[in-house]
Design brief:
The chain is α/β, with parallel strands linked by helices. It has 3 domains: 3-173, Rossmann fold (3-Layer(aba) Sandwich), CATH 3.40.50; 188-352, TPP-binding domain (Rossmann fold, 3-Layer(aba) Sandwich); 363-560, 3-Layer(aba) Sandwich (Rossmann fold), CATH 3.40.50.970. Helix content is 40%, strand content 17%. The strands form 4 sheets. A 6-stranded parallel beta sheet has the order 3-2-4-5-7-6. It has a 6-stranded parallel beta sheet with strand order 11-10-9-12-13-14, with helices on both faces. The longest helix has 27 residues, at 336-362. The model has no long low-confidence stretch (mean pLDDT 95).
Length: 562
């Protein structure tokens, strides 16, 4: 009899699946898999905290549109991963989280790190799988990846008890299925309805969200807006799918973005939402003209109609639907583009008007530095099509999102709807690992940088020369300002940190540290950081009194009102 262990079965199934990297932090309950992955070509990329490992996988999945793998040990290893999984769920990142756990034979005996893990994570993932039979491990691994990548992508949890991994079975009893899913359902009638509505519209607004990115719709969306002449706004992972520099792309759909998004949202007579949710970021759908006809396209039927009535609900893959829309638009005898020119001209004027007001802060010479000036300097420096920018922090991520010019899809990441601080360094490290020849910059708040600060060490140890720019307002700025708005003062405990020499701490770890107090010194610091070829931290002292639109929104949050 040819015997094989569960750990070897798991390792072989991961290799067969084509897994190249596993983000992880070691532990006894997953050592049976570790030992059989050694010398296989699968890289075990170890971080300093399980949360960082999951965030790295989330960033990788979002950028590549393919499932990424995380492996953590039982108990605290598992619980440390939960924040990252919640974030991945709301960003639709296809992740397979493999966790070890206490053996089946010692459950409820107070064994080391014993806890019921699957019930905890089940509400946060597409599927929580627990394998109790060693011979079924390859089947469960195949199932996990199929579920993570199919339909609307998202995280899947796979639990493998340590005695199931250590058990030996007859190799012939193990079945190793392998199915790769790619399904693109299309609503042909829905496509016709979109073209009919566009034909009757005078002021349409197309919003491209993460579904546009995950479905690989960059080219067809660009062709569609050029064919119809309809203006485009983008959101979340949809940012950059059509460059912000395109004459029909008016950048972010967020109303706080300097430009024309607010005007378009309030005045459009037709809103076509492609692959994004009606959420806080569009005031739960309330920002759009109440008389506008609403079209919402999503691969998940349950998502359509959340928060607002939808006139034309369409369940479809975005790319397939746009291809059909493009075909139907091509059959029209008269051009829609000519009809929309006055509307596009109006939006172009509003866009220029909004940017003119923002320019006062973007080019401000005040000291301490206005954070929008910092964001502006970063944006003008990181101006290549392949440059990758990561944003982390409360106010800081807001300033960055208000400023960053998107030139390519998948090259800007922030924490999105879950709003979890601490993503910055793991996201940046993942981006540099994935694209070693591209410049990667993180703009982070000083509060956010502290959560996973030791991932600077990971960056240095692994040879990932990312540049982190800290907007240092000496505290938790968004909370501080929201309290000032709400209560008239901020509570020092929990909102004030003080001046911390983060750059010196990074130097002590072996990186480059730079300190900036004047606006004119920002660009030279960026040039020096990237020229060094080292992991670098630029500690920029910014104005503690500036209030972002995010702080104002937080002060008026529904559950936060008196």
């Amino acid at each position: 009899m040819n015997e094989i262990t569960g750990g070897q079965l798991a390792a072989e199934a991961l290799v067969a699946r084509g897994v190249e990297k596993i983000f992880t932090l070691s532990g006894g309950h997953i050592t049976p898999i570790y030992q059989h992955l050694e010398n296989t070509g699968v890289e075990l990329f170890d971080t300093r905290h399980e949360q960082a490992a999951v965030f790295m996988a989330e960033a990788t999945a979002r950028m590549t549109r393919k499932a990424a793998t995380v492996m953590v040990t039982a108990g605290p290893g598992f619980t440390n991963a939960l924040t990252g999984i919640a974030s991945a769920s709301l960003s639709n990142a296809p992740i397979v989280l493999i966790a070890g756990c206490v053996g089946l034979e010692t459950r409820e005996k107070l064994d080391l790190q014993d806890m019921r893990q699957a019930p905890v994570i089940e509400p946060m993932v597409k599927k929580a799988l627990v394998c109790h039979k060693t011979e079924r491990i390859p089947e469960y691994i195949d199932m996990a990846y199929r579920i993570a990548e199919s339909g609307r992508p998202g995280p899947v949890y796979l639990e493998l008890p340590v005695d199931v991994l250590n058990a030996k079975i007859d190799a012939e009893k193990a079945v190793s299925p392998m199915t790769v899913m790619e399904s693109r359902p299309v609503d042909l009638a829905g496509a016709k309805k979109i073209i009919d509505l566009l034909s009757r519209s005078k002021r349409p607004m197309i919003i491209g969200g993460s579904g546009v990115w995950y479905s690989g719709s960059e080219t067809v969306l660009k062709d569609f807006i050029e064919k119809t002449g309809a203006p485009l706004y983008t959101f979340a992972m949809g940012r950059g799918v059509v460059p912000d520099t395109h004459k029909l792309c008016f950048e972010s759909s967020l109303a706080i973005r300097p430009g024309s998004a607010m005007h378009a949202s309030l005045n459009a007579d037709l809103v076509i939402i492609l692959g994004t949710r009606l959420s806080l970021f569009n005031i739960f759908g309330g920002i759009y003209n109440r008389n506008a006809r609403m079209v919402q396209v999503d691969i998940l039927p349950e998502e359509i109609g959340r928060n607002r009535s939808i006139d034309v609900p369409i369940v479809s893959d975005i790319r397939s639907l746009l291809e059909e829309c493009l075909r139907l638009a091509g059959k029209k005898k008269t051009s829609m583009a000519e009809k929309f020119k006055p509307w596009v001209k109006e939006l172009t004027a509003k866009d220029a008007e909004g940017k003119k007001l923002a320019m006062l802060n973007w080019k401000s010479d005040t000291v301490p530095i206005h954070p929008l000036r910092l964001a502006w300097e970063i944006n003008t420096f990181m101006n290549g099509q392949d440059d990758i920018v990561i944003a982390d922090g409360g106010d800081t991520a807001t300033w960055c999102g208000m400023t960053r010019t998107m030139r390519r899809g998948g090259h800007y990441l922030d924490y999105g709807l879950y709003g979890s601080l601490a993503v910055g360094l793991p996201y940046a490290n993942a981006a540099k690992l994935l694209y070693p020849n591209k410049r990667v910059l993180l703009m982070s708040g000083d509060g956010a940088i502290g959560f996973n600060f030791m991932e600077f060490e990971t960056s240095i140890r692994k040879g990932l020369p990312v540049v982190a720019v800290i907007s240092n307002d000496q505290g938790w700025g968004m909370i501080r300002h929201s309290q000032e708005i709400r209560m008239g003062h901020a509570i020092p405990n929990g909102t004030f940190i003080g001046k911390v020499n983060y750059h010196g701490m990074v130097e002590a770890l072996g990186g480059l540290g730079l300190y900036v107090e004047k606006p004119a010194d920002i660009r030279p610091a960026l040039e020096k950081a990237f020229a060094s070829g080292k992991t670098a931290c630029i500690n920029v002292m910014t104005d503690t009194t500036t209030v972002s639109p995010g702080s104002i929104a937080l002060a008026n949050l529904g559950g936060y009102k008196a």
